[in-house]
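Interim report, section 4.2 (structural modelling).
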Amino acid sequence: MSTNVFDPASASVTVLGLGPMGRALATAFLDAGVRTTVWNRTPGRDAELVARGALTAGSAEEAVAASGLVVVCVVNYDASDAILRRETVTDALKGRTVVNLSADTPARARDTGEWAGRHGVRYLDGAIMTPAPSIGTPDAVFLYSGPRDLYEEHRPVLDVLGGAHTHLGEDIGRAASYDIALLDIFWTAMGGYAHAVAVARAEGISAGELTPFAQGIAAILPPLFEEFAHDVDSGTYSGELNPLTSGASTMAHIVHASEEHGIEASLMRAIEGQARRVIGLGHGADGFMRVAEVLGRTRRP
Ligand code: NDP
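Predicted structure of the assembly:
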């Protein structure tokens, strides 16, 4: 008979930060039966959670003292610093584990890792790649980086948040590095989509009418990511089926059509500008991903 089955009722967690994501995390812990203590800078955001069984804390220090595992989910690392680096809170954190699921840059994650190391705080960095309603469902995606043994120790309780949990390595900045790359894709796609809808509307096409075709464009992307990753990792960049010169021409059409409607096209102008620069460097017959290689040439060592 196995004695290693995880019993959520034996676990306890503190959630600092009760925005939409912090509330979703706390709800998932509570639903699984984990003893959950919550705290938020602005009081009053915990009412629903307390009604569901959460323990409320009068201060961050008190909240931290309630659990061996402290999950932080606030807007950025200025906010998590404001909470964690107050002397009394730092003292209370000594020997406990902090999992910081707030989003920020890899440099901020590494800086927080160093701070934690200096203060005897056990630290994992993390990122959440799916929206708040996904938490507690199979669709949630969590990324972590930092000491593997610490991750393995807390994995059972983190698993109750649902979905896929991936430890990306010991470099504390690695989860934030993935986060930045993935958010780069997301926000530029959102910027493109919002612009497309504005231009389509100017042409008398509603957002709803565009939807099935927009979904068709989105469906093209997953296999392209795989093919393009191979191009970049192998240094090939074949433009046999779609050379950059042809792509740049369609980018110009988007700029012209937008500006004819008085709709600014700065995002597409920037993308077209990159493509034209790469063509100017003699890569017009290459595929679009040559842009990534050329962008990388200007990077600081
Ligand atoms: P927000 O990003 O709006 O963060 C709100 C939380 O940050 C509140 O608890 C707020 O406290 C706190 N906060 C802000 N400034 C400070 C400060 N100076 N000191 C202390 N606390 C502060 O809401 P979310 O909950 O949505 O997001 C939290 C994190 O999760 C973010 O990093 C976000 O990028 C990430 N995330 C969110 C997703 C989502 O779907 N919402 C999806 C994936 C990641 P107060 O109430 O007092 O203002």
